[in-house]
Amino acid sequence: MESLAIYAPRLVTTKEYLASGHRACSGCGEVLAVRLTCKALGRNVIIVNATGCMEIVSSQLPYTSWEVPWIHTLFENTAAVASGIEAGIKVLSRKGGYSQKTKVVAMAGDGGTMDIGLQALSGALERGHNFIYICYDNEAYMNTGIQRSSATPFGASTTTSPAGKISIGQTSWKKNMPAIAAAHDIPYVATACTSYPFDLMNKVKKAMKVEGPAYIHVLSVCPTGWRLPSDLTIKAGRLAVETGVFPLYEIEAGKYTLNFDFPQLRPVEDYLKLQGRFRHLSKEVVAQIQERVKAEYAKLKRKVIQGS
Amino acid sequence: MEKDETIEIRWHGRGGQGAVTSAELLALAAINEGKFAQAFPSFGPERRGAPVLAFNRISNVGHIRVRAAVTNPDVVVVLDPGLIYITDVTSGLKQDGIVVVNTPKSLADIKSELSGPWKLAVVNATVIAREALGIPIVNTAMLGALLKATEILGLESLVEPIKERFGPRAKNNIDACHRAYEETLMAELSVVGQGPRKAFETERLLSWQELLPGCVVIEAGNAKQYRTGDWKSQHPVWDQQRCIKCGICSLFCPEGCIGQNKEGDFEANMYYCKGCGICARECWTEAITMVEET
Amino acid sequence: MATKRIGMEGSFAIAEAVKLANADVVAAYPITPQTHIVERLAELVANGELNAEYIPVESEHSAMSACLGSSAVGARTFTATAGQGLELMHEVLYVASSLRLPIVMTVANRALSGPLSVWGDHSDVMATRDCGWIQIFAENVQQVFDLVLCAFHIAEDPSVLFPTMVHVDGFHLSHVIESLYLLEQEEVDKFLPKYHHPYALNPDKPVTIGAFGPPNIYTETKKPQDIALRASKKVILQVWRKFSELTGRYYSPVESYKAKDADVLLLVMGSFSETAMMAIDKMREEGQKVGLIRLRLWRPFPFDEFRQAVAQAQLLIVLDRALSFGGPTGPVCSEIQAALYPLETRPKIISFVGGLGGRDISVPTFEDIIRRGMAKAKQGRLDELEMIEVRE
Prior knowledge:
The complex is a heterotrimer. Chain A is α/β, with parallel strands linked by helices. Helices cover 37% and strands 15% of the residues of chain A. Chain A has eleven helices and ten strands. In chain A, the strands form two sheets. In chain A, strands 2-1-3-4-8-7-9-10 form an eight-stranded mixed β-sheet, with helices on both faces. In chain A, helix 1 (29-41) crosses helix 7 (197-209) and helix 3 (78-94) runs parallel beside helix 5 (118-127). The longest helix of chain A has 24 residues, at 283-306. The radius of gyration of chain A is 19 Å and the shape is globular. The mean pLDDT of chain A is 95. Chain B has two domains: 7-188, 3-Layer(aba) Sandwich (Pyruvate-ferredoxin Oxidoreductase, domain 3); 220-292, Alpha-Beta Plaits, CATH 3.30.70.20. Chain B has helices spanning 19-32, 83-86, 107-113, 125-133, 139-150, 159-166, 170-183, 248-251, 278-282, and strands spanning 7-14, 36-41, 51-59, 75-78, 98-102, 119-123, 185-188, 234-238, 258-260, 266-268, 288-292. In chain B, strands 2-3-1-4-5-6-7 form a seven-stranded mixed β-sheet, with helices on both faces. Chain B has a two-stranded antiparallel sheet with strand order 8-11. The radius of gyration of chain B is 21 Å and the shape is globular. In chain C, helix 1 (10-20) packs across helix 2. The radius of gyration of chain C is 21 Å and the shape is globular. The model of chain C has no long low-confidence stretch (mean pLDDT 97). Chains A and C meet through strand 1, strand 2, helix 3 and helix 5 of A and helix 3, helix 5 and strand 9 of C. Strand 2 (70-72) of chain A pairs parallel with strand 9 of chain C, so a sheet runs across the interface.
């Protein structure tokens, strides 16, 4: 658990920028992550949303859950649309018609970020636009019915990487998207998770202050796609962090910081056994995952110690 | 139901309850019997917990050509006990049609809540499913109830499709189906109800002239009008004695619908609460319990 | 008005118009034969001659996507592309028109792969026919300049708000140096109103742009879009009239040349029209009653003007610079047939396809097309699609 004063939640603004009445699944970790993100962002933003769960559940004509300016166009072009908005704000404020303080925030799922939208994202990061890109990673194409993406973890059963008589489910390891973002030498990269709300909101606030591109990768538990009861959303995210499956860290100007270090990681099994998508895994595969998680965590810690 | 014409069925369920699976299994069973049948869902953006529809058409005669949604069903099947209070499940139901309802209530109680020129069949499918399967997924139990109420197919025709679909879990599902068949009770509804029939909210749809250029929505946050509270099958209740007013429930609520009332007590706005149970799970002092909707 | 006639490449004339329009954002990806346009614009921005943001995006898909963003925030937005680039933009084009974002784009028309061809034809245009943009064809460098300026005015009119393409034949117009009259900055400032999108993205007035449409509303979103695009013709005519008052240069949705008393009409689009005029002149000298029709406005299709322009003719010969594989005729010709079909009396129609992938059509070839068309009509061979000058 985050070390925090017990009454810290009371310090969070009660102002909502994502209105109730959205149509997300009961217990959705992603919509919660977006809700908390918006609290940290405040009102002076323009949000660009990729096609996906968040777009569908928050904007059905003639309704919108958005209390801030928001645009959705396509699936793979979120970073490019954000580029255009940022450039527009820049030139209009130069010509005296806009407040330059307005921050552009792109939001997309793992598919929209790591698969189909990677090119547009890479372009926008490389060009150095002043914007925040947030990937809400629920580890598969949930909007279309739980198909695998490059974010789907090894061993997870999805509808297009199903566990079967001769298959363990997904047979590739999760793509390291934060590392790809960091390889663009941008000022700020961070990982976050809904189960650590203050950490998440702090990182969003930090990203707001960055001049240039900031990338935040938020693990967003999907009870529907991960096949777990809707009340376990927060617990599952917490276990992802405590087992080292999804460590929370920041890369500021190339410097790594581990926000929550667990000298004694919990066994990954604690995390896996909670979820139906891993139910089929043999002991051997679980052990294989455990090895990988340990190795990756050690790699990350080396970077922290070395400073970059 | 011996008429030599297509029988149309509308399934009312919630996303994740298996209404679509019910319809699919029924169609497959009918086809296995040599009949002609269709099954299809109503595709929509609604998520787990939201009211959804699925449809069947079954014919003894030949290939069914109509692909449009069923609006004048011969039979409606209601998978979730709460749905009869939030949606007009009997909308368009034909004269002498049948309403098959999953409910914990007695036949007499339900009879006082529904009225019209229809037959009623009731079964406590949730209890059956919990006991037979260990989870409250009632789709196979409701298939049993449907067959008891309509006799459109032989109960045995469902066995193969259920085996195909559920593999190792088939036996329990077949048990649920059989048990529901046995326990379903039938009655005639009275044409005139005791009380005024509930008026259901119908969404007013915009005309093309009312849309702005580019279909921009200028009323920020107007989704607040949309009730998602109907999706829940359980709701949180606070023990204010135990509550330390820390607000973690409010912070972790995906709906953003938990706040403090005038007395400073935390509570959920039931207009939006989907009953996910995160607040109860995460409460540090276990001051929140989830209570089944009745 | 500038009275000095100067020489300039077509691509530079486009950049000049964009500069005079004081565009705010240019987002573009280089592709032959559009490159000179965007290179020139990048240079103007680099030299501070155009106070704009130039976004050197990583693909055409992102070019048009960035344009969506900048236009939605209220910035005057321009881009240019060609051929494959237009195809890569394809899905984004539909979003631009349905969100009513008045982006102006020049297309240096180019053939589509394969085989790879960087040279001009109208295959790229025809593939985007139904994307909901206003589409205008230019025939020479002067027109390129004029029509790009007018395009901003048309697109951004509060009753229009549609993205607009100006079609400029690749190489034939993009890379040709010709003479033209420019306009002074003060003249342009007077002619072109400021861009103001009524629902621009701004935290002071939060709007939701791009909400999704389930089956119970999608049809209602499409009807007003179609009605508004058709109605934009009125504004197009007004803007061109206003432009003629400023410059003395007149533009019409359907342009005619020696067509009034013509029995036989040839129809072309784009830069080939002036070459075709030469053929008309020659045949007129021979006493043939032939004339030329040029479709300037491709979308919204100018039904009334077109029907009026061909009403007197016995025969209409249509030259397409694109194929509709396996379809009835060339894509323009089949639209022409559809436009005339409801009329009681209408000319006979003959379809030719030529000028593909940068192949020239000379004056004698145009004469040949007209003669062959007349012969085919006499023989009643109306249902043939003929590709001209195919080597055997």
